[in-house]
Each structure stands twice: as structure tokens, then as C-alpha cells.
Amino acid sequence: MCRVYVEKLDKGPWLICEEVPGARTVRFSTFIRVGSILETRKNNGISHFIEHGLFKGTQKRNSREISLEIESKGGSINAYTSSEHTSLYVHVLPEDIEQSVELLSDMLFNSVFDEKLMEKERLVILEEVKGYFDSPEHVLLQRTYEMLFGEESPLALPVEGTSESVKGITINELREYWKRFYYPENMIISAAGKIRTEELCDTIRKHFPEGTGKEPVKMPEIKKNGTDKKIGIFHKRGLKQEYVTLAREIFSYTDKRKYPFLIVNTYLGGGMSSYLFQRFREENPLVYTITTFTSLYKLSGEWGIFFSTDRRNIQRVLDILKNDLKNMRISENDLECVKKKLKGALSIELESLGSKVARNFKEIFYYERYRTPEEVLNNIMSVKLDDVNDMMKELLKPDNLILTVLGGVNHVHW
């Protein structure tokens, strides 16, 4: 049976470690409480820029030595930035964990952000930004968030930044931002696999610097100034389909309404057996892709339906959707089927060390305590039919959904 250990290290990071019997490797991740949600339109992308900079060299290692130290032993090292956090992680054999912890500590706290190397990396990031904004799905979601929250809201800022904002970030700004957010108390360490918790604690204390005494960064209250419009149409040349979202703001990650919401979201968009797939791929073959999407943050969240279709079909899809959503309710049998689906999906997901690490991090980041998968599953299984149908009635009300379209169409109605 897996053993999960949680500790707030003295003047240091939170640590959550899951010892997994039968595992042969270790996933070790550091999560820093900084992301695009703390940025402004002017410095948008700075958290992501710093993530790239961590791989460009420290006071004792160059960029090649950083990657070679892990990859030469068959392991992997990588990082990502999200709205609310940045993560730097390794996947290695147990005998390489101390060397990996020392390496990550060196990158997190001793990176130099050499000006010449960072200017080269800026060009790489600008190519990354171009790639994202070539994607109609990415552009559509950005326009959706701007419609929901307002163009200046951090909730609407792209994690990677824009070409304009990335070009404007100076090396000194990078270094100052890094110093501001990269300190031990502002980090959560999550590890899983073939590992002894006590030894890992000793290793972290040995290689991570002493804490600063500062509190972790708290997510600020975010001003939202979304549009009053119910429909936003944006043109992009060269597209063969219309890309569409119907979306709305919802509640935060820790809101108790999350559990009936999970039922509704899975019923609507959870795979090929979902309502939307069956309705618009099998009964009415009008789309190739149709699904739901959602993000829940500390203080807010969004949810929506996404699909793409030929221009001739877009209004028909919207008309069917609007009529269906108005009166949608599920049966007791539907509820039990969705609960079984969620139970199986959670069990399968937690076969992965990466999924364990990510889930355990979220428990500390959002709840500051560890809830077992059984506790979460009990919350799901205890959801009543009335709770689900009440959630459907509120969530799916057409008047609460904002329609965003990207493509060549000039007019649709909702």
C-alpha cells in the first residue's frame, strides 16, 4: 500500500512524498507559486521566460551539463509554466535522486541568466509564441478568456506571453522577478516512486538553501472586466472550419460544487460515450471534434464547450445545442454510469507517477492538506441526482454562456 508523507519543512518548502511499492523509478518535482496570473499585460510571459532561463546555466554548470547530468543516466528533465505555478521536474532511477535534487536546487537558486544566452533564448520563445498563435484552438481560447474576464485581466493573459511583451522584458527584470518568487517557502516539492521519505527529507535539507522567513506568495484578488457582449466573432484567414466556444466563468478549485460539476462535465464531454460526442458525431454528423474544457483556479474558474465545424453547419449545431441545454437533465442510471466512469478514470490515472505527483501537489497548493483518493472518490460517489440536475440547470443556462467564434463567418445567433 502506498504511504503518503506530508511536511512543511522548517523555513523551507512543503514536501509531499508518496512511496509506491513496486515502482522502479522516482518522479521528483518542484512547484513554484508563480505564473501568468501574477503578471500584467506589460510583463506577460516573464514567468515562462524564467522557466526557460533555468536551463541556460548556473554558477557551476552550463546548459549542456544540466541536461547531460540527467539524460546520460537515462533519466529525463523538463519544466512547464501554467497560470498559477511553474514546475521543474526529473524522472530518474532511485540511485540518482540525490544528484538530481542537488541539480534542481542549483538551477532554482543559482541560475545566472547570462545576457547573451538569454537573448538567444528570447528568439526561441518568440518562435514558440508564433507557433501557439498559428493554432486556431489556442487563439480561440485566448479570445474566449478575454470575453469572459477582460483583456487586462491576468486570467486572460497567455502563459507564454505575446510577441510584444516578450520583446519588452529586460534581463534585469527577469533577474529581479526570479529573486522575488524563487525562494524555498514559495515552493512545494512533490515526489513519488521508489523512494524513502526520511532519506529524501535529509537530501532536501542538505541541498536546498535555508529559508528566508518569508511567507508563500498569496494569489491576489483579480479584477474581472469581461465584455457585456454575448457573442464575439473574430476573423482568421485560411481556416477551413469555424472554431467555436460556449463558455462562462465558474467557481474555484476548492468549491464544494465541484463534485456535481464533475458529473455534469463528464456526462457532457467525457470521451466517445459522452452526450456531446453521441449527439453531434453519431446522431447528427456535423463535427469532428466536440468536447468540454475547464480550468479551476484558487479564486475563480471557467468552463465551456468547444467544437469546430464547416461554416454551413455552425448555426445548426448552435440551434441544436441551445435547445438541448435548456432542458437537459440526467437520470439516476446516467448518474451511476458517470460515477463508475470517474472512479475508473481516477484509478487508471494514478497508475502514473507523474499523475500522482501532480495530484498530490494540487492537494497542498489548494487545500494545504492531503486528501486521499478514497476521500475524493467518496465526495464524488455521494453526489445526489438533485445536486447534478440543479448544477445542470444553472451551468447550462444559455443566457449565461458567451459565444466566441473564430473563422470566416460574419454572423451567427445564440
CATH architecture of the largest domain: 2-Layer Sandwich
Count of DSSP-assigned helices: 15
Largest sheet: 6 strands, mixed
Low-confidence stretches: none
According to CATH, the homologous superfamily of the largest domain is Metalloenzyme, LuxS/M16 peptidase-like
Strand content: 15-25%
CATH class of the largest domain: Alpha Beta
- Mean pLDDT, all residues: 96
Number of strands: 11
Proportion of helical residues: 40-55%
Query: Any idea what the radius of gyration is?
Result: 23 Å
Distance between the termini: 52 Å
Description:
This protein is an alpha+beta fold and 414 residues long. The protein folds into two domains: 3-207, Metalloenzyme, LuxS/M16 peptidase-like (Cytochrome Bc1 Complex, Chain A, domain 1, 2-Layer Sandwich); 231-407, 2-Layer Sandwich (Cytochrome Bc1 Complex, Chain A, domain 1), CATH 3.30.830. It has 15 helices and eleven strands. The chain has a six-stranded mixed beta sheet, sandwiched between helices. Strands 7-11-8-10-9 form a five-stranded mixed beta sheet. Helix 3 (97-110) runs parallel beside helix 8 (197-207). The N and C termini lie far apart (52 Å). The mean pLDDT is 96.
